[in-house]
Amino acid sequence: MLSKKGAHPLLYPPYQRRQKTIPKQIITSQSAPTTGFTDKGAPSPLAQAIRAGNLLFVSGQGPLDPKTREVVSSDIREQTKQTLTNLLSVLAAAGLDFSRVVNMRVVLRNTEDFPAFNETFRDFLQGEKVTRTCIGATPHRKGVNVEIDCVASFD
């Protein structure tokens, strides 16, 4: 669109900027639960992970057994281990591990679980450093007490 007289130049640049499209690559792992809705027969619009440029965006993983898609335990430590194992499986499908993760978001159903979650999280990451946000909220599925997503870098 051409500039309009008196308008801010960033709103109406004097020339058409060429938009660079970053291709998306869908990443899947058979070692992690499929990501999707519970509607029977409806295809899910969600991917386990998507690579865009040099970044990998991993969908929220929960404490589900990859084969049965059932919650593995009611214990927050066991749920945290399974959730991180599922996350690692998706990262591995892209050729990455926790050393390439730059950010994680955690949802805890019960914030009183934070100390036990944090201890298990720290032990699982074995010294790797990431940025992390942790919030208390109700995950989408009954029995799921933790959900974690992440962003990793290929560079």
CATH topology: 60s Ribosomal Protein L30, Chain: A
Provide a count of the helices: 2
Number of structural domains: 1
What's the arrangement of strands in the largest beta sheet?
1-2-3-6-4-5
The helix/strand class is: alpha+beta
What level of helicity do the residues show? 10-25%
The CATH architecture would be 2-Layer Sandwich
What share of the residues does DSSP label as strand, in percent?
15-25%
CATH class: Alpha Beta
Descriptive report:
The protein has 155 residues and is an alpha+beta fold. The chain has one domain (24-35, 47-153): RutC-like (60s Ribosomal Protein L30, Chain: A). It has two helices and six strands; from the N terminus they run E-E-E-H-E-H-E-E. The protein has helices at residues 76-93, 114-125, and strands at residues 24-27, 49-52, 55-61, 101-108, 131-136, 146-153. It is globular, with a radius of gyration of 19 Å. The protein starts with 23 loop residues before the first strand and ends with a strand.
